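Schema walkthrough. Field components (list of strings):
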Amino acid sequence: MSKLSIPVRKFDAVIVGAGGSGLRAAIQLSEAGLKTAVLSKVFPTRSHTVAAQGGVSASLGNSEEDHWHWHMYDTVKGSDWLGDQDAIEYMCRKAPEVVVELEHFGMPFDRTDEGKIYQRPFGGHMSNFGEKPVRRACAAADRTGHAMLHALYQRNVRANTQFFVEWMALDLIRDQSGQVLGVIALEMETGEVVAFHAKATVFATGGAGRIFYSSTNAFINTGDGLGMAARAGIALEDMEFWQFHPTGVAGAGVLITEGVRGEGGILRNSTNERFMERYAPNAKDLASRDVVSRAMVTEINEGRGCGPNKDFVLLDITHLDPATIMKRLPGIREISIQFAGIDPIKAPIPVVPTCHYQMGGVPTNYKGQVVGDDGTPVRGFYAAGEVACASVHGANRLGTNSLLDLLVFGKASGDTVIENVRSGEIGLKELPADFADRTMARLNRLNTQTGGANVNETRLELQRTMQKHCGVFRFNDMLIEGVAKILDIEKAVARTEIKDKSHVWNTARVEALELDNLIEVAKATMVSAEARKESRGAHVRDDAPDTPANPNGRDDVNWHKHTLWHRDGNRLGFKPVIMKPLSVETIALKTRSY
Amino acid sequence: MATSTMQFKIYRYDPDKDNAPYMQDASVEVDFAIDRKLLDVLTRLKAKDDTLSYRRSCREGICGSDAMNINGKNGLACLTEIKDLKQPVVLRPLPGLPVIRDLIVDMTQFFKQYHSIKPYLINEGPRPERERLQSPEEREELNGLYECILCACCSTSCPSFWWNPDKFVGPAGLLNAYRFIADTRDQATNERLDDLEDPYRLFRCHTIMNCVDVCPKGLNPTRAIGKIKEMMVRRAI
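Field assembly_structure (string):
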């Protein structure tokens, strides 16, 4: 018997996170009648899905011919061939179904004149296997994520889903056999720590963009799922791949959707040149995000940036009809006025590449099951959305594929849980006697620490280190130094001190616990990035330049494989990319150009 | 560096140790080159004193977490320009809801009212294979309604909601009720109107219009409430 006992609540399934993927999974489970608990650090509609703007992709073909196979091709190419082709086929084939379903749930999509879902062009979305841009992004103005998250929450209200709002999950419970038995969580309002003992545990905890200093991500995006998984001995996959969104508002970091360029927006440098014509003659401003971000940083580095410090470029929509801006991009206009102090109808928006999305995560298969290094499912453990790595995004995600990922894999993970629970494959196994000990020791350490490190300062140092050593362009010596620095910061994280020791709504404690997760993500990222000696997608090293033998610096002979970072020993493993789709032919490796 | 000291008076209450709430004087160095919004300054205040508690998440006015009463008016900290604020800046929790701690209120009653209007599309017809059609004009009717972020600035600025939070749906709930009434895909208009035809649920709105004044998204609950009343009249004749 453990000396530390905490209350235990029992469920068929516990979902951690109530953003797009968690809510989509919850709809499956609640409507199937499983006893389900959904835990969230924030009220569900405050999850970061709410900030997505541009759209959700599906080859509905509402404005012009489109096909899921073209969508699949674009996604594989966008991933720089690091995405697993079985999962990518699954997602792209399912897209029309889940988007139509979302419309049936009440999603207020914009409409075409025939009354169908409105679709706009987006970066890397092409017809006929990369030929020319196609309208594939289904949009609700430039508030698609908000409209989607609310529609999903509303459907859960209808389904009577049981939410635990403002609860933070702290640790995964695993037994000797490796089976996952639930989570331990903290109720923020009371400070009470409770075990959620479940047959199935679904991680839908979102991303960890807050490891970077300049990020489009919300304060809550601290990689809690990744930290919990890493501490429980689950390897993290492809963590070197982080998407820097081309258009964050300079200084503020707030996102400006790619939909702005989809509606005709143009990037310009200090000479007023439309520089993307030089980098991507075909797709121009609608090339893939990694390509555009690199072009922007190159312009800035070569002295063609704008402003007094020449440190940003301009996103110009002044040539668009103001009525189009008001109708299709009203939120962007609000954000520009609020955070850049300019009205984009009259003046261009200052923008700079900003950390936006984590392509890697907890390894899963396309059914939403978390898998071990050999691909075998971890019993009782599922994940979907940004925390998961299926891998559909590979080395670079296409815009609007993230919202699609939430819907497809939220639903798939829910369906797999239902199947596994109903078949009796997973049951409620007994909790190990010491299941809460490590968590309680961590909380106790934090409560009694004296003379320790300041949480705010330590987090800032972590964020600045990631920004400086692991940004859009990466350098070998900086990465080596970055690994050492992050390991140093880890020592500070292990001895953080909070002044506030109270029980009720102790946000200082929550922030310290979040930092425990951020550091795991930072280590995984820096170590994986240092190790990968090639350029691929969003990971670009100056010592892996564009040569005839290795176009764009990509080295398929040595590096066409997934990285697996293990917390234990800070060591790396690798596994092959799944090149065989479910039904169609492999999309063979090819040089990537737009 | 354009730094300057800003003065604050902040409502503080920690049920663990305080018998009663009190107003705390606080000051903090701000750098106007970096700090634009009240949330930026709150972050600085919290770095100095980690016991200061408030909700926040997206920092761009879309998640609705950081609603509070700022110099007497409800608003989102992340959208409030600091240079426009009269000092000392007086920060209080949203009025009319129980305070849990500092600037954090218990929003149970607010969400209860939101849930009471059945905030989901009701359409029991057979599910078509493709999307339900809706013309651009019909979709236009949802503009100014679906954008609600449930921050509660409106409902907690409404005297009718202060007096009857358990009986009056409040501006946020009613705006959302009309969002579904106005949706051509929804089949429950009559039931929705029946549910609201009640001396308290709808008719406690006395068009004081505080809700319109404070909505950080520029929405107009009073107009939505007017439209619901209009539909009730029209269906009576």
